[in-house]
Each structure stands twice: as structure tokens, then as C-alpha cells.
Amino acid sequence: MNASLKIPISILFCTAICALSQARPPLRVSLPAGSGGAQTDAPKPAADHDGQRDFDFEFGAWSIHLLRLQHPLTGSQTWDTLEGTALVSKVWGGRANLVELRVNGPATHIEGLSLRLYHPQSRQWSMHWANSKNGALDAPVAGEFRNGIGEFYGRDEFAGRSIYVRFVFSEITADSFRGIQSFSADGGKTWEPNWIETFTRPTGGDAANQQTPSGVESGRSHDFDFEIGNWKTHLSRLLHPLSGSSTWVNLEGTSIVREIWNGRANLVELEVDDPGGNHVEGLSLRLYDPRARQWSLNFANSGDGVLSVPTIGEFRNGRGEFYDQESFKGRTILVRNVWSDITPNSCHFEQSFSEDGGKTWEVNWIAGDTRANATPSKTP
Length: 380
Fold this sequence. Notes:
This protein is mainly beta. Helices cover 3% and strands 51% of the residues. Strand 12 and strand 13 form a beta hairpin. It starts with 16 loop residues before the first helix and ends in a 9-residue tail after the last strand.
């Protein structure tokens, strides 16, 4: 359902996709000095290559052979060998994609995902990684493909230190490719590989079969199970929040919610149209944190390909409440998302803003969803 699909506060739909795409500064990747001859800022891509189809080679099922350095940036030369599978799914017609990965070693099991988003203004991609142990997105890496090589850079923290991260795709064919992650603790002068993966197409469908969930989860990690499937959505949006306005606009569309990690994560794809004929595509990646027993909801729209501030919360007694703090027109506000009236074939969602620390709330987004394949009730 579109409930977590809150348009980021700074853009709130405006009037069209072009307005959405201009609401954020262009996503640019700053490459560290000394990283293989790269400039301080990533050069602008060629005008005849926008990059939005660069990950098309990866769609489908894969077998994985993975080498992982046990203790990066310590001088260690001890590597773990893991084997597993991955499934790469197309989102937004290829302008985004989701990777679901499972690998196993003698004493290690890794279940992770990567959400990749294309930014049309900079013609670059951002990649966001999460694993099922903590249900949180790492700092993204951003970059692009040139001459068959994809290079992505970012900053992160490792063992309390600020480092650069680099991920490189290479040796790409129709049936195989290689990915290497490296860390740099000296500003990009030197790089230490710590994750080397080789993807090959499975010969007998094994990768797809092995993507079935292993084990059974219970409790709050299944709070969103009611929403898995296809939905029709009716939206009402307040045009000018926190201004005293009472003018609303109605939108109609659909959403598809797919299960990840046996219900401990899910991906929502939303498409709606407003009365002016503007078409909006959005997604929401929801991740369950087993330590906090809470969910984070991460939204992006295809107009800018950038994830918004996540809302965090949980379900209690059939009601889900999620909160975050954001900036709206230069003011710090609170945001609240609420699910209610949940049945097997319908649910209700409201987003509200508060500019007084949560004392009062103004509703600005109302969604009523009905299951697309719901069987009509029979009249006695």
C-alpha cells in the first residue's frame, strides 16, 4: 500500500514530475583524490548516454561465489569463502532495481538487499545496502558506468574511523560479472579489497529456487503481511500544508507490495495520476530492525531518485504509527504516518504534520486502499 509512500517534505508533489525533480540538488558523487586518476568531482556524463539502462544486464537470478575479508583495514589476509544466490528485480521500468542476496559459508550466513536508484539530473546511480540483522540502510555509494565499468564511491564509518568506500562492476557479459568492494583509510590514495563477488547465471534454475525463505519469523516482523499483493488506491492530498488551506486534490492509481526476507522487509511500488494528467511513480522500502523491534520506511520518487528521511515506528493493537523530524519551508516539523482500519482487503492511511512539537497535527495526505483482486461480498 502507499501508506508509507509519503512524498518527501521538500517536494510534496508540487504540480508535476519536473517540479519533483527540481526540489533537491543534483546528486553528485565526490571522488577522493588519488582514486585511480579520478577528478575531485565526477565529470558530467556524455549527452548521448543517460545511464538509466546501465543495470539491465543484471536482471534475473544468479549464483554467487563470494570472497570476504574477515578483518578489513587491519593487515589481515584471512578470507571467508561463501556461496549463494541473488535475485535482481526491475523497478520503475529499470530506473531502479532491487537485489536480494543470500550467501552461506562454514560459519556465516548473510541475507542482504541493495536498492539502486537512478538520478535523472546527474545521470548517476545511488546504491543502498541493508542486511537482515539490523534492518537499516548503510550510507549510499553513488556513481555511474563508463566503457563497461561501473564505479561507485561513498563515505562511511568503519571501526570508529571515517573511510571511503568504492564498489566496482567489471567483466560484464550476458552470463557473468564481477563486483569488488574496497575501503580506503587514507583519502583514496590506496584501496584494500574486502568483498569480491562473482555472479554467474544458474544452469538449472537453482538460484531462483534458493531464494525461497529459510526459517519462520514471528511477531512484529510480520506486521506488514496484510499488505502484500496488488492494490487500488484513492488518494486525497492537501495542496498547501500548514498554511490554513482547505483545498484538496484527488489522485487515483495502484500499488504493488512485494515481500522480502520472509516478511521482514518489503518493497512498495506506487503509480498515481492527478486530475491534471501528471503521472507520479514512487517506492517505499520498509525494513524491520529485530533489535529495536521497529520498522523504518524509506521513500523515493522517480523524479529525483533520492531516498527521503525514514519514518520509524511499529504496530500496536492493529494500528501502525511512524514518526520522523524534517524541514518544511525552512521550519523544523514532525511527521506522523498512521495505518488503521486494516482488513484482509482494505486499509486506511493518513500523513500529518505538526509544527508545535506534536501538540496538534494537521492531516495532509489520506489514502484508502482496496485489494485489486478482492472478491465482492455477496448480498444475502
